[in-house]
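Glycosidase (Pedobacter frigiditerrae), 350 aa
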Amino acid sequence: MNIDIANRFAQNPLLSPLALKPSREGLEIACLLNPGVFTFQDKIWLLIRVAERPMQKPGIISFPILKEGGIEVRTIEIDDPDLIAKDPRIITYKGIDYLTTLSHLRLVCSDDGINFYEPEGYPLLQGEGEDETFGVEDCRISLIDDTYYLTFTAVSSHGVGVGLRTTKDWKSFQKHGMVFPPHNKDCAIFEEKVNGKFYALHRPSSVDLGGNYIWIAQSTDGIHWGKHKCIIKTRQLKWDSKRVGAGAAPIKTEKGWLAIYHGANANHQYCLGAFLMDLNDPSLVIAQTDEPIMQPQEMYELEGFFGQVVFTNGHIVKGDELTIYYGAADEFVCGAKFSISEILSLLIYV
């Protein structure tokens, strides 16, 4: 039995690639997706992943790489025998993997949570240094005291890891480098310390044993992490059989820390589920949904740059109302509302 309890915005998609201008001449926006979400100056803000690529020409694949001082565009003929291009997101050329797009993070804001615009005077967040030459992606945002913690996917030929930056005003940022080395992503920091410690969910992946599982870690300063523990695994023959990963910062409820997560099956269909952690010891998972609480069903979720995808890494909590903003089909930004109590009622305790 499949359950979808999402109340999607009637205005979806809220943002599509044509809504924003490319960051550089000669590039086009292929996708807007997977926004981090926060409130600031009485507005709702999204930090959107903007995936760009060179204008494409017939018979040629062009892709960008970030270099010091700018972007280098590389081109490969489609019939080149050394090219493998089965996935619209990744190509392999002469045994080396490249992304077909280069992502940066861009701010938009809204008074009503539906109509978004780019504010003046705020910078783009772009890849910097050798660990981010393929871009920065899928930022989670956690407000702790008066500081926003930004955990994002840092991508380069070295691998995929988790970078961290912090800010108080969204105009100046402190860079903390890579806090979880490759291969790792989907990092969400709790917005409240537990027993004096920072906690974070993250998703390491093994090339040998293990799988794409959700882990939890502790820290005394929010930068250096240890005491890692695997807490959520994939489940055979279920909707989350291939990979799982955390969404935004877990939500504190009377019953425990509620986390929204994504899961994918062998057909690369991405859905959303939830699990619950103990209030005093978040390394203990006490309940999990058996079926997804949201799955691709609208046309803008089924068809796009990479279809059959709903993916969230940002939300707003107001009482019992949970508003998530999500990437649909790896191309559009959309919104949906949930009842937190309804999600809690669907959990199966372990």
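The chain has a mean pLDDT of 96. The longest helix spans residues 340-345. ok done for today
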